[in-house]
Amino acid sequence: MSGSRSTLPAASLARVVVFAAFIAVLGLFPGIGGVAGVPIVVQNAGPILAGAILGWKLGTASVALLLGLTAIGLPLLSGGRGGLAPFVGPSAGFVVGWLLSALVTGLIVQRARTRTLPVLLLACLAGLLADYLIGIPVIGLFVGDLGAGLLQSLVFVPGDLIKVVLAAVIAGLVHRALPDLLPPTTSAGSPVR
Amino acid sequence: MIEFSGVGHRYGDRVVLDGVDLTLPQSRVALIGANGSGKSTLARTVNGLVTPTEGTVRVDGRDPARQGSAVRRRVGFVFSDPDSQIVMPTAGEDVAFSLRRTVRNRAERARLAAETLTGFGLGDHIEHPAHQLSGGQKQLLALCAVLVLDPDVLVCDEPTTLLDLRNKKAFAERLAGLRQQVLLATHDLDLLEGFDRVIVLDGGRVVADDEPEPAVAHYRKLCT
Amino acid sequence: MTPLGLYEPGTSLLHRAPTGPSLLAVLLIAAGTVLTSDPWVLAGVCGLVALGYVVARVPWRRLRPLLRTLALLLVLIGLVQWWLLGPERALVIALRLVAAIGAASLFTLTTRVDDLVSAVERGLGPLRRFGVRPERVGLLVGLTIQSVGTLSGIAGQVRASAKARGAGGSVTAFAVPFMIRTLRHADALGEALAARGWGDDDTRPSPPHVAEP
Questions:
Q1: C208 CA to chain B: closest CA distance, Å?
Q2: Would you say A171 and C183 are in contact if contact means Cβ atoms under 8 Å apart?
Q3: Is A190 on the interface with B (CB under 8 A)?
Q4: Where are the domains positioned within chain C?
Q5: Which domain of life is it from (chain B) (predicted)?
Q6: Does B152 touch chain C (CB under 8 A)?
Q7: What is the pLDDT of residues A87-104, one digit of tens each?
Q8: Which residue from A142, B35, B66, B102 has the highest number of Cβ atoms inside 10 Å of its Cβ?
Q9: Residue A1 clears pLDDT 50, i.e. is over it
């Protein structure tokens, strides 16, 4: 293999499709115990990784594709869930918030000068907070009380923080293994070899 | 006819191809060389998957870098891993996918796909999930998906890497029977039987260009 | 995973109902449940949704996992909200959950993925002038399902080799190689699609529609 890299539109499309499938496959792994109606699973680290690894554009696109295919009835969410139900239940906000997760994480990773662990941690944490930004008010809307929604959501925080750290570590290792994955957007100079 | 003139390619600071000049009118041409010799990259320039950073490529007078769409209609490409090439759920649909731009009628596409698959002994698998076929069948399916368009040139990049001995032989026999010009990048020397011309690449340069026997002898010397 | 997704074949009124209006009805129910706090109205909606399951003759084996999910949600959310907001509010929330999730699941169970794909393609039609190609939706569905299959296989292999290296429990020993092989698969798929002419329609304004000699 010569490591050839195609710049044709098909290459971007394939990344979007394969990453959507990747997030779906993350859902096949057993959850770490369901709490409060929103199961705690590794899958919600997927959108953060999508942003951190593909960048904001393709990362958000892959999350959108995953959500679209879920909505039309494919069981791509953790535990074989799918269809419209995930979009109208109390976890709807967290699922839709994945779009913002990928977007925010991707933007930070692409704008940052370096891809060191602290930067990636910050990017992944921001991605998680972006998800909360949509998820918690929706739970609040559902139960008719933002405070109660906030309290209800607290149970996810410890598990989610662990996933943020893991996502950052994994993204860091992947970027080191494949340095030309994302073009350096700031600071001139070709990737160092 | 495939022509390379002064073709060079680099990824960052790494030179992958360096001043390749070749005119290939022969019907069966092979590119051999070690891993990283540049043969895969050279093969990919033929249908525009890789645009060389220097020099030009011509396929029947057309430049794949500028007329990619037109060239890809004439040049079929078979890769090593059939799992990455099959894009539709069933064998029949996958072959029909190739025809989506040239044949408007859906039923006609299905008919042509079935005809091609039957010709390659996959007639019983038209409705089968493509990914459940055996490795050899999948590679034949990938070949069908390319040949259904009746291209003039067939480029294969290590098409037999994942095949066992029997499937490799079957694939080589299919290849030998084609009317198309074949450009084969491989390090499987068993496939070179019946080839008109074998080009040996090393470090991105052509180091030998001969009939199979002397070319292979040169390649073996390189490896020792 | 079957290409049918979560669809349960049938011939009922709901199965034959047109996709677009059904979808609209589900969305209205979901929005309506959040807008009203009257337990009687919500209970009525729940009754209607339950009637829908009877009309569609959803078999027990499909109903059971749904009921289990709902029960779990009700217990957990209901209890917390009972404690936080009192029993009446907790009842309203529970009824909202049942109505919205019940209606959405009913829609998914009685609507073919194919029909939804066609509906989405029709719905995207007006976006054609902005460069959207609705006819690609079906292909995206197929490609993603394929990739889920391929990646599941890769995940299995990577897990086996992590175990072989004695790193069965390490998350990074699994996740990093899995991620990298996922990206390699993406690159190979991209090349294969490009070689088969994907994206050529975009760069060439009007491709001829007949095979060339």
A1: 7
A2: no
A3: yes
A4: 13-124, 135-201
A5: Bacteria
A6: no
A7: 988 888 999 999 999 999
A8: A142
A9: no
